[in-house]
Amino acid sequence: MPIVSAGDARVDYQVRGSGTGLLFVHGTGFGAEGTWGHLADAFADGRSVLLPDLSGCGATEDDGTELTVERLAAQVIGVIEDNGGEPVDLVGFSLGSVVSATVAATRPDLVRRLVLTAGWAGPEDEYLRNLMTVWRSLAGDADAFGRFGTMTAFSRTFLNTVGREQLEGIIQGNQPSEGALRHIDLNLRADIRGLLPRIESETLVIGCTLDATVPVEHSRELHAAIANSSYAELESGHVVVYEKPAEFVKLVRDFIDKP
Question: What are phi and psi of 57, to 5 degrees?
């Protein structure tokens, strides 16, 4: 897989397919493959699908210090530039939405269309602050960390549908890795409210009505703050890419493929 230097990081990323660039930015803890791997091929016909691992995930390496949204945005920018520097369609999920919005606001020349899924703009929501604080506090108990993260990431309907064996596998995969804890620390501080009015790219904001991690009101606020944006909601918990994959793919494809 290609590796590109971006700031203090060596960013590892995948490329699938060929054509106009389509870059997916993952969320907290889980890297590109864990977030997007099961969906990437649905976009690879006529597209060059770019899947970077941000600091804290996969084989990407950095100095291990405190993360900022700007540092992660620089990593995404580095991947775009490493692939020719032509504008890409940029799709973010959760923390990846915060990073993607930052890229679009600061480097409009690199973003054609923008999709922000289950994201947020600032740290002022006490619910979000307390949820991230509790999750972070469970780092010393891997089982509790995984169960809390899974319980808030998925809707009750989804949890009761997948079966106990698969659910236990999801919990085991949700571990308090150093990278995940660095991401949670950033989630508590991230603030892009001042950047949102600078976004020029045509934008689709996707909210999840059953989201217990980042309540859907945050997506509605992103839509309200971005002038050239449209809005859609899916009846899903936070991790909509697993709960409603077909519906998510259709929303994104209809948006990025329209004339």
Answer: -135, 150
pTM, two decimal places: 0.97
Report the distance separating Cα 189 and Cα 122, nearest Å.
8
Going from N- to C-terminal start, the domains of the chain cover 3-122+192-257
Whether residue 230 lies in the annotated active site: no
Q: What tokens appear for 105 in the block?
A: 């606001």
The tens digit of pLDDT for each residue in 27-86 reads 999 899 999 999 999 999 999 999 999 999 999 999 999 999 999 999 999 999 999 999
Helices (H), 92-206: 95-106, 126-137, 142-153, 156-159, 164-173, 178-189
* Residue 223: active-site member: no
Tell me whether residue 238 is one of the annotated catalytic residues: yes
> Which of the residues 53, 62, 82, 211 is marked catalytic?
211
Among residues 26, 183, 218, 238, the one annotated as catalytic is 238
Q: What is the pLDDT of residues 216-243, one digit of tens each?
A: 999 999 999 999 999 999 999 999 999 9
Q: Which of 48, 55, 94, 155 is catalytic?
A: 94
Q: In the CATH hierarchy, which fold is given to the domain comprising 3-122+192-257?
A: Rossmann fold (3.40.50)
Q: What strands lie across the sheet with 88-93, from one edge to the other? A: 3-6, 9-16, 47-52, 20-25, 88-93, 111-117, 202-208, 229-234
